[in-house]
Amino acid sequence: MARILVSDGMAKKAIERLKEIGFEVTEKHYSHEELSSGILNNYDAIVVRSATKLTEKVLSTIENEKGIRFIGRAGVGIDNINLEEASRRGILVCNTPQSSTQSVVELTIGHLITSTRHIATGDRKLRENNWAKKELRGTELSGKNLGLIGYGRIAQGVSGVAKAFGMNIHCYDPYISKEFAKKDDCIIHKNIDDVFKNCTHISIHCNLNEETYHLVNEERIEMMPEYGSDGMKCGRHIVNCARGGIVDEESIIRTLKNGVLSSAALDVFEQEPLNLSLLLEQENFHGTPHIGASTIEAQSRIGDEMVILLKDFFNGERPHSAIN
Amino acid sequence: MARILVSDGMAKKAIERLKEIGFEVTEKHYSHEELSSGILNNYDAIVVRSATKLTEKVLSTIENEKGIRFIGRAGVGIDNINLEEASRRGILVCNTPQSSTQSVVELTIGHLITSTRHIATGDRKLRENNWAKKELRGTELSGKNLGLIGYGRIAQGVSGVAKAFGMNIHCYDPYISKEFAKKDDCIIHKNIDDVFKNCTHISIHCNLNEETYHLVNEERIEMMPEYGSDGMKCGRHIVNCARGGIVDEESIIRTLKNGVLSSAALDVFEQEPLNLSLLLEQENFHGTPHIGASTIEAQSRIGDEMVILLKDFFNGERPHSAIN
Known about the structure:
CATH architecture of the largest domain in chain A: 3-Layer(aba) Sandwich
Helix content of chain A: 25-40%
Strand content of chain A: 5-15%
Shape of chain A: elongated
Oligomer: homodimer
Number of domains of chain A: 2
Strand order of the largest sheet of chain A: 8-7-6-9-10-11-12
CATH class of the largest domain in chain A: Alpha Beta
């Protein structure tokens, strides 16, 4: 029976199910050096999250007759997998694009309100025995324009909740049809700059690639209005629960320092784990350690979906989320 | 023209409007001792938020022919005003019940997600250079039962957003009609304990009075299920953005310590400012310093509403939000 390496963990229920089906499952995290020495020739498939980097160097050690034929990404983003090298060697890559949608939607809204109402700052000051009620005056989301960069499943979920708060939705996504976004009661822009020019609040929901690298920069932040469409001076707010690198952290630090940006909430960073960053010295920054999909529910759904992908692949079928 | 004392601040625009109308406005905060020495005999009306305590002692110094005839509470809760003594002396009390609704709704949702996704904890650990991704696994709101204690304007607003997340709403409010809550797609309970028995997440939206004092206690927290209606083990979560004292803080500390309670998020406390509380030593507690109505929008609307109340009162009309 096929040998599956699970290198970044997976829900226990899914591991048990794979074993019941008859797969030989190994749960072990190898370093990049170990992976580069040909260890993947001992397996038929690998399941990764984001910690394991399947670089060109790693994948080039795989021998045609012996090594893995399937890479399962338990999650969405595949920027830790060299897709070209995988394709060149005939290795199929699949992800689980829908399983974590709701979790990321909820975290995004949480980060948005934590910013506008200073929740993390308020808690930090309480713990310093500082009752900072006066300096923590916030602003409402209601009546403001929220700009969504990318309008896939997650952004659409964020849009639904934000509308329940009374926000107006603007979006930019070159890959969706204009008709669709109109139906969804969202103002779609052809030019990304127009989203920044119209919105006091921006949330990122696109992939990281050459096109989106440092898409949020000082120049675009300066385009944002500081007055909401309700006439209130609410300032400028950026949230990123998508991928580090889409937001230029140097720009964030500079504009938080000079007061152009009112808040930045980041779940993802250019370098992870984040360490000794100047971000951490900014009062109006708050962050979480890449926990968008870190819920019991998302991990359970991801595990269930990965079991189906592996079953289908080893039954000779093409899995529903095959990427290459 | 009437002399108005604004003792806890008010939006600048509203102060200016009052002066334009012709009122003589004094912005000054007096201590309880000063207020108790008869200072209110120099004014015709006072506007307070929550910091000024208009106790029996203070109000009993007011002379019939000279002192204030109107108390305006810029906000909702009137627990800082001795209503009986005011009524006895023929002083009208008005509040601004609708102006802060949206702000409290947004803060409540923010606190709920900050709890279930460990946002404040995640930020605190980042600032300690601790990338605590693994220990910060959270749970989704979607598919869980949210119990609302009190189902007035704020709770109804929270309900609307929570439904957008996919939560099921349970509520207890002896003062609303069953027909109303049914129409609003909310399960109404006759017995408060039934809300606790059905809900993994509880949020408080009632007034503080003898009936509601320490309504959330250890016994009721232990009634809560730890599995959501979707079968997921999400634990037990309490949010209070209403008034300190409704939640028994000793019970919160004990049940956070023994693991019965998974999180507590408090904007209001039994003693404010909060100081040296054992709450602050609990990892799964987070708090803010009573900022439910602390937004530019709410303060602006409160000011606008107070101008109308004062105009109406001094024109000899009964203001729309007169309480006594």
